[in-house]
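Notes from hallway chat w/ T.B., transcribed later so I don't forget. T.B. wanted the structure written out for a chain they're using in a teaching module, and asked if we could keep both sequence and structure tokens in one place. Agreed to drop them here.
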Amino acid sequence: MPNSHSSTVTYSPAYTIVPTYECFNRCTYCNFRTAPGQSPWMTLAAAESILIQLQNQKVCEILMLSGELHPHSPQRQQWFQRIYDLCELALAMGFLPHTNAGILTFAEMQKLKNVNVSMGLMLEQLTPALLQTVHRHAPSKLPEIRLQQLAWAGELQIPFTTGLLLGIGETKDDCWETLAAISDLHQRYHHIQEVILQPHSPGNQQTFDAAAFDPHQLPEVIAKARQILPPDITIQIPPNLVQDDQWLLACIEAGARDLGGISPKDEVNPDYPHIQEQTLREILQPAGWELVARLPIYPQFDSWLTGNLGDGVRRWKNAMLLV
């Protein structure tokens, strides 16, 4: 039974908008991407019609989750502008945007900071061995490029989410080294708000022929991550990928305190429907855990926001009675 000082588990009431599924990376475990030119881009009009329907549904976070266009693609500027415009629209309609659009330039991140309360990029794993296997056809999965993005986020004072993908061919030592790298960057910039520990969960689209990461190993990974990471970084796990209630509780007991964005569909793992708020409450409450909604920016970073972003966070805090 948890003690009274650590009995809260958080989640973000969220909805995911996908500017485009097309991606120049071809990670073999991916169940998200389509080939370039194979799916239409989200229009502002289509996004607006979705957002209008969400305005009375207590949805706070709009996760802008996009496939990546090649840095030298002739459509790169148009792609980036579409993401920016979608974030600007969501913000104007009262939502709090959080963008994860893969590798961005420093200038792109600097601009997106004006229309996002936080941003994210999964490190996945930093071991270069994966460049010969699951990331062989994924140019933007070079470890040094992804670490650079985390450092830039720190320089720009962007509250940031990152994480590990577990079960894609890494060793345990690889995991600890990746977590240590996150810890080092955070101690330099103090900008990482949460680290996701995401177990590989096979889907219908992927070509990677490997079993799911054993969820029974997750509590051990979480406990070790809790030792490596500074205490002000929250550990997040996706509850739809830990489908045994008792092991979900074991993950929380081990140190995970956030369940991520809960929306109608998990775009990254479409074969695994999100567990909705009421069901999660029914799992957690008997074990003494209270499920509490949060914003996509953690309170310690509020002072980094100005203008419309700061106003939007204050409005949501009042609406959700968050202090």
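Follow-up for T.B.: The radius of gyration is 18 Å. Might be a good example for the class.
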